[in-house]
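User: quick one
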Amino acid sequence: MAPMSDAIVAEGLVKRYGSVVALDGLDLVVPEGTVMGLLGPNGAGKTTTVRVLTTLLEPDAGRATVAGLDVHADAKELRRRIGLSGQYSAVDENLTGFENLDMVGRLYHLGKKRSRERARELLARFDLVAAADRPVKGYSGGMRRRLDLAGALVATPRVLFLDEPTTGLDPRSRLGMWDVLGELVAGGTTLLLTTQYLEEADRLADRIAVIDHGHVIALGTADELKAQVGGERLELTVGSAQDVTTARAALGPLAVGEIVEDERGHRLTIPVSGGSEVLVEGIRRLDAESVKVLDVGLRRPTLDDVFLSLTGHAAEEEEQGE
Amino acid sequence: MNAFTQALGDGAVVAKRNLIKIKRVPDLLVFSTLSPIMFVLMFAYVFGGSIEIPGMDYREFLMAGIFAQTVVFGSTITGSGLAEDIQKGVIDRFRSLPMARSAVLIGRTTSDLVNNVIVVLVMSVTGLIVGWRINSSFPEALAGFALLLLFAYAVSWGMAIVGLAVRSPEVFNNASFIAIFPLTFIANTFVQESKLPGVLKTFAEWNPVSAVTQAARELFGNTNPAFPPPDVWSLRHPVLMTLIWVAVFLVVFVPLATRQYRRAVSR
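Assistant: Done. Structure below.
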């Protein structure tokens, strides 16, 4: 583990709030120039991890370095090298977009002239030129998030931390944000991204660390994690309870694992292997038994499935509050 | 750039940001000015007739008290402003920047001082309209205003500690009212403290607000030989006493507030 090639190294991070253990021995390594997705439900410890790595919180135990600098001993120097965009858009509502970025530049000590230039550059890059001199109060949610992200990029950081960058955005703004982040990542910035959205981690991250109860419970590429859950499954919705029984009998030979039945929804989930041929064969068998099929499809595992199989509960079921 | 000049430079950037808010949300200034005007009018015309101050007009007596109360209230903006910044995640952003640790507090207290200057100006005009007069020299009057503002500045740092600890502007406002009402009313601000019963009298005599009020009263020339201050050291040497309070506040509050800032994170 050469320090030059790992942008973020965290070892055994522990953080307690009273009796609540937010981080419980968290280990994490992010190679330079890669994107790490921290995936987990609310309260899993994602935000706490980001706060420790960005020097906002002192861990109770463990150590961490970012860009080769210790989060405790070299905190001030470290802050020059990182950018943080938090869970809420930490932009000042009463300032204009330009004033917000100019202020951040000044506080990075870029100097008056350079701060202004940089603010204009970023406003252009994030499509905020038209709104640049209007108070942020009138910005949409998506515009605020872009401005907040621009704020994190003012000092051209080598390592960027984004805490739930699309939480609270409507689907269209989220897609827009993903495009922006995609470009950024293509530029070679090391990025640590937290998210509750499995789709988001799947799309943006090179590697994903699944976090639950303050430590990493699984680590790998999206494909590796999906492989852990197993292969494909045939999902089937039929017309009646009678059909459920018939279909189950008809498809039994195709199953490579346990068939899961949802009687009330008249749904069956059948683990299979063999791709679309299995789908065709399944439909043929159902047809032969005259089962009324409302919906049928071959589904590859999603990160939701990964989460469910790793933690025993779905990502969204966890109680609110972090 | 050494640490001290950097803290001042960063503080100026933060202060500028806060002052832009005064410009863009003028309601804030309007209401923080209207309430003291209301106090002046209420006390002058409602209570003024019933409260006897030997040898002088009540309005003359009243103004220094209202000035003291107003600047102390003005200092609470420091706490509510910081609580709001925490709530909105702005403090997280600031703390992730390589800026001086004390800069946000320096900037905040400075911009709130500017706010207080504006409020004091408006109040002086209101006072002059209802019949208040400065009976001392110009330098003395200036010293009186400076002392009031300095006092409020020191109190601001105490408000910063509370604001950073409670992290919600609503909670802060409720908490600060509980502290500020007794401090500004159990004092020589609106009545003669000598007429207060036992414990309250002692409290009023050593209340920092009483010291700054008495100091302002003397520096504005709003005193009368027929009505001397009580024979208590704090009120016999009000200017010195106020300066001692200011020093104590700053020595205690500045490090505590900075420490609290270092730990402050939003929830």
